[in-house]
TrEMBL record:
This is Amino acid transporter. Its main location: membrane. InterPro entries: AA/rel_permease1, APC_superfamily, Cation_efflux_TMD_sf. It comes from Lentilactobacillus farraginis DSM 18382 = JCM 14108. GO terms for cellular component: plasma membrane. The keyword Secreted does not apply. The chain crosses the membrane at residues 38-60, 121-148, 160-184, 204-224, 245-266, 313-335, 362-385, 391-417, 438-460, 466-485.
Length: 505
C-alpha cells in the first residue's frame, strides 16, 4: 500500500503549527512591548535561519534515520555524546511538562470564571502555588495512567485545539484591526519613534543583562524545527522538501511573530493593563485577550458592563482553546519524545525495563519513571515558597533554558558533521569550511549569551531561588545522562569480564 508522502506545503504547515505559539507573542509583549520585535528579528537572523539550514543538511543526509536528533548527533560526534545531548533534549520536554502542568489550570479557571482566579485558590492552609502544584501532580499522574493504557486516540483532541488556535489568531487579527478602525487609527500603546522599538516599558527589562537574556525567550519561541528531523523518511524527496520547507516556514514565522506583537499595541496600553502584580507569565494571554474584547466593546460604544462581558467571552474562548490544546499536547508529549529517544537510541545503553513496551506499544516503565521525575520537580518548585509572579517566572525560565540548551549540542556538532567522510549529502548550503565555522561560532555565541545572561540576571538581583531553578534542569539531566552511561559501561565491562573468566572474583 502506497503511503502519501509529505510535500513542501504540508511540511510548512506542520512546522508553523509546531513552532508558532500565540502565547509567545503575549509573553514577548509583557516582557518587552514593541521592543521585543527587534529581538525576535535578531533571533531569526542569528539563530533560526542559520540553524534551520544546518538542520536541513542533517535531515537531508540522515533522511532514512528514525532516531531524529539522536541519529544526527550519533553520526557526527558519536553515540555517547549523542545520548547525553538527546537526554538533555528529552529533559526540555520534561521541564515543559513540569511548567505546563502548573500553567494549565489558568486557562481552566479562565474558561470557568472568565478570568484567572488561581491566585485566590487556597485550601487547608495551603497557598495558591501549593494548591496548583498538587493539581499539577494529579494532572501528570492521571494523563500518564491513561497514556500507558494506549489511549492515544485521545490525542485527537490536539487537532481540535489546533482549530481553536487558528480561530484564536483570526479573532485576534480581526478584532485588532476593527479596534484600530473604530479608534481612528489610534494605538493604545503610543509609538514614540524608534525609541519604542528599542526600549522596553517593563522596568525589569532595562539593564543590558536582562535585555540580552530576552534572546532566550525568542529562541524558545522558535524552538521545534529540529523535531521535524524525525519525519524526514515520510517526506516526498526529503533532500529538497525538508530544506525548502524550513526556509519558507522560518520567514513566515518571523513575520507572523513580529506582526502579532505589533498588533497587541492597538488594544493594550502596557502601563495601564500590565503594570500591576495581578499579571504574570502564566495568565498574560488571558489578560490580554480579556482586554482585547473590552477595547472592542468600547470601540462599539457598549456600556462598561457590556464591554466587560465581551472581554470575558474573549478570555473564555482563549482559555478553552488553550486548555484543549494542552490536553491534546500532553497525551502526545507524555510518551512521544520519550518513546522516540528510547527506540531510536542504542538499546545497549538502557536497562531492559526501560525499553520494554507493554501490550499497547507503550514504554510503561519509562513513562512512570518520567512521571515520578516531573512530580518531584513540581513538588519542590511549588512548595519552595515564592509569589505567584516569581513562581511563573521560574517555570518560564526553566522551560526556556531547558529548550535552548540542546541546541548547543546540535550546533556545536555541525562542524564535525561537515568533516565526516563517505556521507551522501543531497543538500548542502554550508560548502565553505571557514564560513561554516564562523557561522557556527556566531550562533553558539548568541545561544550561550542568551542562556548565560538569563542565568545571571536573577543572581544580580539576589534572587537565588529563581537562579537555581533556572539553570538546574539541563545541568542536572546532563549529569544524570553522563552518570547513567558510566554505570551502564561499568556494568557491561563486569559482565564481559565474568563471561571471559567466570571463576575470577
Amino acid at each position: 500500500m502506497k503511503r502519501n508522502k509529505i510535500k513542501t506545503s504540508g511540511l510548512v504547515l506542520m512546522i508553523i503549527s509546531t513552532i508558532f505559539g500565540f502565547a509567545n507573542t503575549t509573553v514577548a509583549y509583557e516582557q518587552m512591548g514593541y521592543a521585543s520585535i527587534i529581538w525576535y528579528a535578531l533571533a531569526a537572523v542569528f539563530f533560526l535561519l542559520p540553524s534551520s539550514l544546518m538542520f536541513a543538511e542533517y535531515g537531508a543526509t540522515f533522511k532514512d534515520a528514525h532516531g531524529g536528533i539522536y541519529s544526527w548527533l550519533a553520526g557526527s560526534i558519536g553515540e555517547e555524546w549523542a545520548f547525553i545531548g538527546t537526554f538533555i533534549w528529552l529533559s526540555s520536554w520534561i521541564i515543559w511538562m513540569t511548567s505546563t502542568a502548573s500553567k494549565v489550570w489558568i486557562p481552566f479557571s479562565t474558561t470557568l470564571f472568565g478570568s484567572d482566579k488561581t491566585q485566590s485558590w487556597g485550601i487547608l492552609g495551603l497557598s495558591s502555588n501549593q494548591v496548583i502544584g498538587i493539581l499539577a501532580i494529579f494532572w501528570i499522574l492521571t494523563i500518564t495512567w491513561f497514556a500507558v493504557r494506549g489511549m492515544d486516540s485521545i490525542a485527537r483532541i490536539a487537532s481540535i485545539g489546533g482549530v481553536f488556535t487558528i480561530l484564536l489568531n483570526v479573532l485576534f487579527g480581526v478584532a485588532s484591526l476593527l479596534i484600530l478602525y473604530l479608534s481612528g487609527g489610534h494605538f493604545a500603546q503610543p509609538i514614540h519613534g524608534v525609541t519604542s522599538f528599542i526600549q522596553s516599558p517593563n522596568p525589569q527589562f532595562q539593564s543590558p543583562v536582562t535585555l540580552i537574556s530576552f534572546i532566550v525567550y525568542a529562541v524558545f519561541a522558535y524552538a521545534g524545527t529540529e523535531s521535524m528531523g524525525g519525519v524526514t523518511d515520510n517526506m516526498d524527496k526529503p533532500e529538497k522538501t525538508f530544506p525548502r520547507g524550513l526556509i519558507i516556514s522560518a520567514v513566515v514565522i518571523t513575520l507572523g511573530y513580529s506582526l502579532t506583537i505589533f498588533l497587541w499595541g492597538i488594544s493594550t496600553n502596557w502601563q495601564k493593563v500590565l503594570g500591576n502584580d495581578q499579571v504574570n507569565l502564566g495568565n498574560i494571554t488571558y489578560v490580554l485577550m480579556n482586554n482585547l474584547g473590552y477595547a472592542l466593546g468600547e470601540g462599539f460604544h457598549l456600556s462598561a458592563a457590556g464591554s466587560a462581558f465581551l472581554g470575558g467571552l474573549f478570555a473564555r474562548f482563549a482559555g478553552l482553546g488553550m486548555f484543549i490544546g494542552y490536553v491534546g499536547s500532553f497525551f502526545v508529549l507524555v510518551y512521544s519524545p520519550l518513546k522516540s529517544f528510547i527506540m531510536g537510541s542504542n538499546p545497549n545503553f538502557w536497562p531492559k525495563r526501560m525499553t520494554r513496551l507493554n501490550k499497547k506499544g507503550m514504554p510503561a516503565f519509562a513513562m512512570w519513571t518520567q512521571a515520578a521525575v516531573v512530580v518531584v520537580i513540581i513538588f519542590f518548585v511549588s512548595f519552595g515558597g515564592s509569589s505567584a509572579q516569581q513562581f511563573y517566572v521560574i517555570l518560564t525560565n526553566m522551560g526556556n533554558i531547558s529548550t535552548s540548551f540542546p541546541y548547543l549540542f546540535l550546533i556545536a556538532a555541525f562542524p564535525f558533521f561537515k568533516r565526516k567522510q563517505n556521507l551522501d549529502r543531497p543538500f548542502e548550503i554550508y560548502t565553505n569550511r571557514h564560513w561554516t565555522d564562523f557561522i557556527v561560532g556566531v550562533v553558539l555565541f548568541v545561544l550561550a549569551a542568551g542562556i548565560g545572561f538569563t542565568a545571571i540576571a536573577p543572581v544580580l538581583s539576589h534572587d537565588y531561588q529563581t537562579a537555581f531553578w533556572t539553570v538546574i534542569g539541563p545541568i542536572f539531566f546532563g549529569f544524570v545522562a553522563w552518570a547513567f552511561l558510566q554505570y551502564q559501561n561499568r556494568k557491561k565491562t563486569r559482565s564481559r569480564n565474568w563471561i571471559e573468566d567466570p571463576d575470577n572474583d
